[in-house]
Amino acid sequence: MKLRIASIVALAALFLSGFAVHVTAQDNAADKIRFVHALPGGAAVDIFIDNILAARNLDYANATRYLNVKQGEHTVLVQPAGTGALPSGTPLLTTKVTLSADKPTVLVVIGGTADKPTATPYDQDLGPIAPGNTRLTAVHALADAPAVDVLRADGSPLVQGLKYGQIYGAFDIPASAPDVAIVPAGGDVKGALISISGLSLVAGTHNTLIALGTVGGSVKPSYLLLTAPTAPNTASDVFVRFANAAADSKGLDVYINGKLSVPALAFGAATLHIPLPTGGAKIAVVNTGDDPATKSIEVGAAALDAAKNKAETIVLTGDTSGKFALAEYPDDVTTLDPAKARVNLINTLAGTATTSIGDVNFAASAGTPTANQTVPSGAYSLQINVAGVTVKADTVLSGGTLTDLIVVGDVTAPQVIVATTSLSEQAGSIPIAGGSNVPAATNAAPVANAPTSAPIAAAPSATLVAPPPAQPTALPPTAVPGNIGTVITNPGVNLKLREYPRTDARTLALVPSQSTVTITGVRGHVTGTGTAVPTGVKVPTPTIAATSRADVWLFVEWQTPDGGKVTGWTIAQYLDITINGRHVPSDNFTALLALKQIPENTPGEVTNSSITPIAVSNRLIGKITTNDGTNVQLRRTPNVGGESLALVPSGGLVYVIQKTTIIVTPVVGAPKSPVWYFVEYDANGSAVFGWMSADFVSVTFHDHPALPTEIPVATEITRGYIQGNATSVQPPAAPGTIATVIDINNGANLQFRRDPSATSESLGLIPAGTQLPVLGRNGAGSWIQVTYQAQTGWVNAAYVSLTKNGRAIRAGDLAITTGEKNTFGTGTPTPTPTGAG
Length: 837
Known about the structure:
By secondary structure, this protein is mainly β. Strands 37, 40, 41, 42, 43, 44, 45 and 46 form an eight-stranded mixed β-sheet that branches. It has a seven-stranded antiparallel β-sheet with strand order 54-53-47-50-51-52-55, with no helix packed on it. The longest helix has 4 residues, at 590-593. The radius of gyration is 29 Å and the shape is globular. Residues 1-29, 433-480, 529-543, 724-732 and 828-837 have low confidence and may be disordered.
């Protein structure tokens, strides 16, 4: 009998195992650091934190796990591998890294060039995330490459304009496994520097896509995906790892409570421990790409009882016929000695699996949960016996970790999935030569039991991590033809396809965020061949008068999940658009006007679909009646002191839901009418619900002025809210002189510089919408001096709006604080690209 002997490391470049739970910023255990070796052509390195070994023999294109450290400044030393437990000789690089309550989790990328290595720290946001969503960011570490874009295979963008040494602001999207291309900024997938097939982005995880290598050098461009679990939404969440033991499967999609959560899980791969709500979950499993609504699937219900098991591994078994099953195995994630490792043997095959690690013997019968055993950390050559067949699995068991050894395949050719989770790992936990450990590190943060420990994530140690292929699987060689739009509303907020190009036309369908539509053309003038304009439909301003994407109506086609289609109208600003594979920048609307013109009296329609059009015409429509240029506050509560949720411009439309009457003592500036309307306002991809005074709203019903009896009276006061995961609308400008960060890409941040120069040291990244107290400007008015997080620095004037006590001002109105001559207005400053500032 020919025996198949293999050891599977669970796709280390894509699934870097870890465990995450929530802590407060004050908890010392919240501070974490991890390292990536991205120095092109560099030999393996050892990394020390405060002279304590943190990473041994870390190869190029590999990463460490997150390590526990105390808050404060730490000295990081990088030197050639093999120096032993203590640093010796001349280091390649010495640098300082500071962790604080504001920056508790830091990724350090070792990059640059062989003669000038660098260490760049990047903050990582491991905060909670909505069920079914994943968080994505990217780092540009291609030393000789221009700025890059990260595109899907159809050319739609994920990340744009990313420069070398920068990180892109993290953003949340539904879990998926897209084909991805990293291209020079403004390029298309045909000119990809790096092509990635099926980038698996699992729900409940933070993913950092790192482009590394060189474009012109001998080290070809490649990528590394660092995946870490996000914090749970509640303290009672259960942490679940999924492992694919389904024989001969080409990959599985796992749906949790109806949402795709684990896409394209390859056979022999395991995910991180991701947080799930306690109390049970409906788990549906299908072959990758199959529709769970139409395919025959096996649905399992996991108990997910936090009182019984705080964490567990769910092993999926079955075959490509679609008959899948699951089995739950408890994982012990309580904190352990950072010089000890915990091992769990899981056997999915018939018979009993056995192995020995040091003086500890393991035996696991088929399907029986095994006890988690503690062993000395060290490098081990394991021999696992199953039904007379021996499987070898060389592995490094670092201190403070849990490793699940999962026996899969069949009894004639068993294999082993090695899945490691970091619990209380720190500098000093990595075993050195001979299997011994450095004494427990003095710089490590105290770590409580798992239910109160900090977010921890990890790659397997260096000897287990396989670098990504130098030539990843290529995308299709040609760009996707046609005109494609990707919906860019906030997660959970749908895009409305309307019957006609007007905001109060009937809604035909709600298209989910990140869906794609085909663009047929742009709104044109009424023609004699079109359908007659129905009664009450006002002819809008022709497209040729558009001044931004908000004025451009597109006629699109959406293929519905049930196999039908919907044609209809939508506003261009809610779509990322590619024309024959070439991306159309968000500030470019003139290119859209060159599309085929569709008469504006052409109606959309639903074909062969179960979707029922939404009768918006039966809703009460409110039109804002203030003077041009004046906005109306949409408030959380029906009073002038209520929190402002949005500003609705003159002529804007809202849906009126209810009304109430508020009797108050008249004051100067208060509305004359005591009536307030509870309304819905659709803006910026969000649905904002709140209250506005009847003084500023003209209400119609079926195109006639609404009667008082046609507006329902509220029986209780509903507090205003924003639908979906939208960012709250920014409040009015604060008193004093304020700079508000604007005009940067969705999810991006603005650089905060020490001096007024694009090459000056970065003090941090400032999110869009942040309001900054202003101190002054440089002579040209191209840089604004501000304070942010108790520091004084500079921001690029091209990316902020300036107000004084709520009124707009120019940069030239500010005092010069650099001592330069006043040259404001004598030239046009050249804006620095978004995020560079």
